[in-house]
C-alpha cells in the first residue's frame, strides 16, 4: 500500500504541502494580561492621530461649554415644570411671609430671665405601620414678662431669631400649674 500512489481526479483537489516550522525564530511567550491587552487593542480600530496639548485643551473647553449649555437648558426646563403656570396677563403674586407655626406645650424650665424651655409632645400615626408614634422636642421660648412657671401649659408662636437658641415667643398661658 505504501507503493501505491493515487492520482487526483478531475473533481478532487490536491492537499497543499505542509510547511515545516523553522526553529530559527522561536515564538514570543507573552504574559496572559499582555496577550489579552494586545487582542483587545487589535479590535479597537485604527489609532487616532497624535494631538498636541493645545488641541486637547481646546477640545476639553468646547466639551465643557456644550455640557454647561445642556445643564442650563435642563435646569430651566425643570424650573418651568415646577413653577405654577399663570395666565399670560396676570402678574406673579408678590412674596408674602407664610403663616407662623403655633405650638402648644408644657413649660419644663423657667429659671433663665425672660426665657422658658417648653416641651412639645407630638403623637402621630406611622406612615407604613399605622401605629401611633410619640415624640417630643424641647424649644427655648421668649417670655417677655416672666409670666410662665414650670408645669404651665402654654401656646407659643414662631418668631425671628432672638438669640442663639430662641426662635419662639410666648403667646398665652393656656393653663396654670397647680
Compact summary:
By secondary structure, the chain is an alpha+beta fold. The chain has helices spanning 32-43, 53-82; strands at residues 102-109, 115-125, 132-142, 153-158, 166-175.
Question: Order of SSEs, N→C?
Answer: HHEEEEE
- Straight-line N-to-C gap: 127 Å
| Proper CATH architecture of the domain at 102-175 | Beta Barrel
Query: Under the CATH scheme, which class of the domain at 102-175?
Result: Mainly Beta
Sum up the overall morphology in one term.
Answer: elongated
Rg result: 42 Å
Largest sheet: 5 strands, mixed, barrel
User: CATH homologous superfamily of the domain at 102-175?
Assistant: Nucleic acid-binding proteins
For this structure, the CATH topology of the domain at 102-175 is: OB fold (Dihydrolipoamide Acetyltransferase, E2P)
Helix content: 10-25%
Q: Compute the average pLDDT.
A: 85
Number of strands: 5
Keyword list:
178 residues; alpha+beta; OB fold (Dihydrolipoamide Acetyltransferase, E2P); five-stranded mixed beta barrel; 2 helices; 5 strands; elongated
Task: Reconstruct the topology from this structure.
Layout (H helix, E strand, L loop, with lengths): L31 H12 L9 H30 L19 E8 L5 E11 L6 E11 L10 E6 L7 E10 L3
How would you explain this protein's 3D organization?
- With 178 residues, the protein is an alpha+beta fold.
- It has a domain of 74 residues: OB fold (Dihydrolipoamide Acetyltransferase, E2P), CATH 2.40.50.
- The chain has two helices and five strands.
- A five-stranded mixed β-barrel has the order 1-2-3-5-4.
- The protein starts with 31 loop residues before the first helix and ends with a strand.
- The model has no long low-confidence stretch (mean pLDDT 85).
Amino acid at each position: 500500500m505504501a507503493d501505491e500512489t493515487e492520482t487526483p481526479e478531475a473533481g478532487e483537489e490536491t492537499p497543499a504541502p505542509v510547511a515545516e516550522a523553522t526553529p530559527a525564530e522561536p515564538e514570543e511567550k507573552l504574559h496572559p494580561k499582555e496577550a489579552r491587552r494586545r487582542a483587545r487593542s487589535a479590535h479597537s480600530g485604527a489609532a487616532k492621530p497624535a494631538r498636541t496639548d493645545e488641541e486637547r485643551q481646546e477640545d476639553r473647553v468646547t466639551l465643557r461649554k456644550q455640557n454647561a449649555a445642556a445643564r442650563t437648558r435642563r435646569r430651566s426646563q425643570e424650573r418651568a415644570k415646577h413653577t405654577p403656570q399663570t395666565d399670560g396677563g396676570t402678574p406673579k403674586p408678590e412674596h408674602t411671609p407664610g403663616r407662623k407655626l403655633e405650638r402648644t406645650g408644657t413649660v419644663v424650665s423657667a429659671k433663665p430671665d425672660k426665657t422658658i424651655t417648653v416641651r412639645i409632645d407630638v403623637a402621630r400615626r406611622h406612615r407604613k405601620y399605622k401605629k401611633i408614634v410619640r415624640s417630643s422636642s424641647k424649644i427655648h421660648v421668649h417670655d417677655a414678662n416672666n409670666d410662665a412657671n414650670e408645669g404651665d401649659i402654654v401656646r407659643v408662636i414662631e418668631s425671628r431669631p432672638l438669640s442663639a437658641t430662641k426662635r419662639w415667643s410666648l403667646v398665652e398661658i393656656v393653663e396654670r400649674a397647680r
